[in-house]
């Protein structure tokens, strides 16, 4: 809570600096109010509470020290390059301060006889101990030292630490402090008062445990992380409540289509598939919109669950739509689901950007008339001229690969106006699917507004995939392995990371690999598919591979998801060290889809970096997508995991999802209690921590 006078920090800018210029620089850091400044916490600290004699500092190599002395010499030298060289002396010795970039004003500052306090790493140079580009200030003899550790803040260009420190100190003095957590709540969770925690982090006393500050385990940091997670949980849970206040058409009929469809499947649903289907069906019966995330490892059978959900929508008299991020994946869904549904009399329509104008127009007319009951396609589905008659269910596959705006556009197409209902108050049910398992902590934190279903069981008959890591110098052996597999009637993928030669990366390219394999395996048909092929060309190659007319398919990552060829049992991935864990796992999942023993060979180029070694070791050790996701989160952090869902949203600034999982659990519990009992505190806490950013969490 702030005093009315504390509007912006710009009005209090330093007199020598134009207010607008300072305001713009602060705004780029998101610092517009006193509370913004107060929550702009240090990223590290420097201990300037004592001065080390120069003689002693000379023996403290490798660490930052603070020295003080008189300037005994100052000159500009020109060899080996122009530089300012200052000699500083105290009662114990002397040191050199060297500035490779400097201003003319520094020459006057550093005049002989002036006193300088400098901080940096004192190294042994050719002419004795020296500091290169130290942080320094001019002082008088006996000038007092700081009594607290000196904070170092995240900053931007042209915004010096000294100004940030003054602005933050000023904000700390003006703020009307109020804790959003009651004393009883703080006692329950052993949390510091908000003001005490903030003041300590900005001005930690010298006796404060520097290690606890650095690794953010200090109680003051714990309070900040708890508050941040609480704000996120409050916002997401409130978005969930707001969504449930909106209307949706109940889809109550599990009728003849659904029953015939499930009975006609050539396999029985696994226990996990049936459990998840029951969860989805229960949501579709409600009069508020379902927003469920369906997770399942590669090959776990998410598509059939989605198709059965679509059947329920169609049984209930509504349309269903399935949107996929690539044409290959959308086509895979279309062929599979249409093969199941069209024999039952259901009209399944295909809509992508590559359709001819006449076919596209025909598809749009059937969608608008309601003749199309299930529509499958790509981004083309969200164009303005695509109008649905009665859209009841939206299914988004690989949801993290779509932007927030793209998913919203499809969802907001609503049920149409024929029902006489305000479309702004009615939205379709939404089922989002992901084959990239999201670790539980990440799901709890960033998907707290969604219901999450997990298919944690693979269908019977799937053979485990053996993974081997091989130096690319053994390429000839690998080619021999591919040939042997094809002689046994199997097929193979060979995946490359680039299409054309890149001198910078020097990677084996798909086109070169295709030529090499074609020459080395003259008795086989070697196909090539990559993102620059026209959709029809791409599909023709994939069809030939599916029919086993092509024995080896050289491809880029366009085959990462959706490709299902049970006869393919060997996967070779070139330069595996260049791929992320999630992508490697997805690619590996293209094999092991039939009854034959399957192998994935990860070719790498030496030398390997530490992270690349970790990734390849993880791939060799496990095929469990959830374990891979958990370890991937440790390596990468949450940002890349979330994909376009969080586009525009600031990631958590202080909390760490790996080390602070216990805080996520506590914050969720407190959020539910506050939403139930204390609306005023909820508003105050969200205003403090999220402000205008809350909108990014609501999609």
TrEMBL record:
The Helicase ATP-binding domain, residue ranges: 283-455
Domain Helicase C-terminal: 488-634
Pfam family, one: Helicase_C
The entry's keywords: ATP-binding, DNA damage, DNA recombination, DNA repair, DNA-binding, Helicase, Hydrolase, Isomerase, Nucleotide-binding
Reactions catalysed according to its record: ATP + H2O = ADP + phosphate + H(+); Couples ATP hydrolysis with the unwinding of duplex DNA by translocating in the 3'-5' direction
Top-level EC class as recorded in UniProt: isomerase
GO terms, molecular function: helicase activity
EC number: 5.6.2.4
Cytoplasm found in the keyword field: no
Keyword Nucleotide-binding: yes
Superkingdom of the source species: Bacteria
Function: Plays a critical role in recombination and DNA repair. Helps process Holliday junction intermediates to mature products by catalyzing branch migration. Has replication fork regression activity, unwinds stalled or blocked replication forks to make a HJ that can be resolved. Has a DNA unwinding activity characteristic of a DNA helicase with 3'-5' polarity.
NCBIfam families xref list: PRK10917.1-1, PRK10917.1-3, PRK10917.1-4, PRK10917.2-2, recG
Family in the record: Belongs to the helicase family. RecG subfamily.
Name under which the protein is recorded: ATP-dependent DNA helicase RecG
Protein's organism: Actimicrobium antarcticum
Phylogenetic lineage: Bacteria, Pseudomonadati, Pseudomonadota, Betaproteobacteria, Burkholderiales
